[in-house]
Amino acid sequence: MSNEFNEDQQKCGFFAAYIRSKRNAIILSGIFIIILSGIFFLYNVNLDAIVFASIICTITVAIYIILDFPKFHQHLNALKHATSNITLTLGSLPSSENDTYKAYENLVRILYESRSELITENIASKRYMEDYYAMWVHQIKVPISAMHMLLHDQPKSSPLNIQLFKIEQYVEMALSYVRLESDSSDYVIKRYDLDSIVKSAVRKYAPLFISKKISLDIADTNIKVNTDEKWLSFVIEQILSNSLKYTPAGKISIFYEAPKTLIIRDTGIGIAPEDIPRIGEKGFTGYNGRTSQKSTGLGLYLCNEILSRLSHAITIQSEVGVGTTVSIDLQTRDMILE
């Protein structure tokens, strides 16, 4: 009963829309009937003839409406269906014999073709950028390898090796950015030992800890997490890199809090309160980045994006002059293990 009422209500709505679309013609027809009736009356035509002619005209208009309304209803219904089921083609767009409707349909087709061309150009441009960066990363590794050979007899914590390490990290960041922005999926979700991932990242940054004389306090987590090892390692490395960059002296602590939160805390310069809400925005460097001119604003953006895709979360608390605490919530939802 309710469905029938809704259908009747919908038909009434369509009929009201039809009347609105034809109101000028209906008003004009009424004016013509009044004018003709007035002329007949002035020429002393029998009143019955005037009434009969008016009735005939009204019936003719009514017959036209009865015959034309189903076409209008069908066309409008098809348009509404096409609107609620938009696809990448124009096949669902209803055809019409009305010249005005045809003009609108032609306009829609032109806009659609222009949009399709822009999408194609954008995809081609994006693919070119990805190929270019992939080639650049591949080529830059050759001189980096040569520099490693030239510096093999120097300590890992030597100034030259530290600068070479930073170059490698920037190259890795560029490659990760390209991979992240591409449409291809590069995630392997498994159950991994968190301690193994954390300690691997710490070992990688050991030369920087040594060169800056930053102490490390690391506690075993003794837990396993559902994640992607490569991407989570990248996130932890980026956070360690930031902590080392903005901690001139002191300590970096890594520990675990229940239920599944990895904490990385430093005693660095801290982050201005007004900058914290915008951390993770692409290209945002904040006061520290603008002052030191060492930040690209890309690292934490990548961390935020990666953790979001891994169904993890990141929160940052900081106090200027005291330090920064980064919390990575490693709980997962709707993850598919391989």
Automatic annotation (TrEMBL):
Reported EC number(s) for this entry are 2.7.13.3
Topology relative to the membrane, per the entry? Answer: Multi-pass membrane protein
What keywords does the record list, in alphabetical order?
Answer: Cell membrane, Kinase, Membrane, Transferase, Transmembrane, Transmembrane helix, Two-component regulatory system
Query: Which InterPro entries does this chain map to?
Result: BphY/WalK/GraS-like (IPR050351), HATPase_C_sf (IPR036890), HATPase_dom (IPR003594), His_kinase_dom (IPR005467), Sig_transdc_His_kin-like_C (IPR004358)
Q: Which residues cross the membrane?
A: 25-43, 49-67
GO CC annotations? plasma membrane
The listed locations are: Cell membrane
Question: Which Pfam families does UniProt cross-reference here?
Answer: HATPase_c
* Uppermost EC category: transferase
> Which molecular function GO terms apply here?
phosphoprotein phosphatase activity; phosphorelay sensor kinase activity
Reactions catalysed, as given in the entry? ATP + protein L-histidine = ADP + protein N-phospho-L-histidine
Specify the Histidine kinase domain's residue ranges: 135-334
Spell out the PROSITE patterns in the cross-references: HIS_KIN (PS50109)
Q: Its GO biological process terms? A: cellular response to phosphate starvation
What's the protein called, per UniProt?
Answer: histidine kinase
